[in-house]
Amino acid sequence: MRKPFVAGNWKMNTDSQSSVGLADGIACGSMDIAGRRVDVAVIPPFVYLQAVVRTLNGAHIAVGAQDIYYEQKGAFTGEISASMLKSVGCVYVLCGHSERRHVIGESDELVNKKVTAAICSGLLPIFCVGEKLQEREASQTSEVVTRQIRNGLAGLGVEKVSAVTIAYEPVWAIGTGLTATPQQAQEVHALIRRLLGEMYDAQLAEEIRILYGGSVKPGNAADLMRQQDIDGLLVGGASLNADDFVAIIKAAAA
Length: 254
Ligand code: 13P
Prior knowledge:
Layout: E1 5-9, H1 16-29, E2 39-43, H2 49-55, E3 62-65, H3 82-87, E4 92-95, H4 98-104, H5 108-120, E5 124-129, H6 133-137, H7 141-152, H8 158-161, E6 165-168, H9 182-199, H10 202-207, E7 210-213, H11 218-225, E8 232-235, H12 242-253
Parallel strand pairs: 1-2, 1-8, 2-3, 3-4, 4-5, 5-6, 6-7, 7-8
C-alpha cells in the first residue's frame, strides 16, 4: 500500500509574515492526520524555508524546496546546493517543475543532474513531468512523458530511484483551472508505473508514489485520489489557502 502524499508548492508567493501564518494554519488544521494517514509537505520560497521549518516544529509536516543546483558549492552566484537545503531542515526538493522547464528553460539533462545531486545528498526529489497542450493535442503525451522520465532518471539505479516521488503535471492544467479528468490522469499515471516497471523492477513500480498536479482543488481532490495509480497531489494555487489545502489533505487521507 502506498501512503498518500500531498505537497503544496507555494511558487513565488507569500511574504515573511504570511508564509509563517500559512504554515501555522496548515499545521493546526491537519494536526490529527498529517504524518499519520497522509504524508504532507509544504514547499515555500527559499527565503522563508527556515522560518517555515521553525513554525512546523513538531507538526509532522515536511518542508521542501522549489529547486536545487547540482554542484555542491563554489562560484555559482544565486544558486542553492543540496547541503544548504538540508542544513535548514528541508526533506524534499522539486526537480524539473514545468515552470522551470518552460519559463526558465531547464533541459532534461539539467533536471537529471538535479535529481541525481538531490538523491546523493539525501534529499527526496519530487521529480515533475508533463506534456504541453500542443503535445497532448498531437497525441504525444506518452512520448513526451516517457522521454522526460528516461532522461530525468538516467544513470540512476533502482536503490536511488526508490527515493524519488514522481509528479505528473500536465502543463495545460497548471494554474488554468483546467484539471485533467481523473481518467486522463489515471491513464498517464498507469503509463508511468508501467514504464518504471520496465526500467527497474515490479517492486519499485509498485512502491513508488506518483502525484497528480494541475488545478487541484478541494472539490476535485477526492475524485482524483480514487484512481488506482494516483497516490497523492501536488497543489499550487489552492495550497496558498490553509482551509483549502487542509480540505485537500483530508480528501487524500479519506
Ligand atoms: P496549480 O494547482 O496552481 O494548477 O499548480 C500546480 C502546480 O504547478 C504545482 O506544482
